[in-house]
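Sequence in, structure out.
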Amino acid sequence: MTDDIVLVEVADRVATVTLNRPEVRNALNPALIDTIRARLAKCDASDEIDAMILTGVDPVFCAGVDLSYLDDRMQQEVGSATAFPDHPVPPHTKPIIGAINGAAVTGGLELALGCDFLVASERARFADTHARVGIVPGWRLTVELPEAIGYRRAKEMSITGNFVDAQTALVWGLVNHVVAHEELLPFSRDLAGDIVSNDAATARAILATYNDERETVDGPRADLELERFRAWHAEGKGADAGITQRRDAVIARGRQQSR
């Protein structure tokens, strides 16, 4: 079960789903988003799978939304509420472990936050650069990031655009574990094996309870974020300056911060 841009490997009732656009740092475009959603949904529906691992082809997890695509889309659809696709992680009944092998930036951070819990390589880094490219979040970042690390730290990440390394992410509670890079997938598969060893129906019922409880609080806040996203971009804010014109500066700044 493979696809050129999303690879899926199933073994021992665990599906490893891998983003495979290394030439663009696994950046999210409509084709990749749709394929991730389709592959995860298919795995979630399979009777042969009890847990999923989401990762990326090295050297990054996901550099975010493909900004050249997004700039074109925003310019074409100023005034529209449909200028952005749905979150890449669809609703699911089986746990998804995010195996963060490298940088997870902006949309890549939102992709990671869509997983149920995270294991990070020592090489992983996390950043929210929405404000640096003139985009207001629309994939629940302002809900799920403070839920993970607290409002003060989330605000710092979002309004500085600074990168957070793996060990800081662990201390802050953004990730569950940090491991040596070569141990990332073996460790994640062992963790998935622990999930598989439980009674599957009970594990899914508990996961559903957690998710339903979260949604009673998170749902209205996520609706507010989406409303703000649509209003911001419907008025053409951010797009007029050219998202792609800001991309190189963001990438260069990220590389400088990693030294």
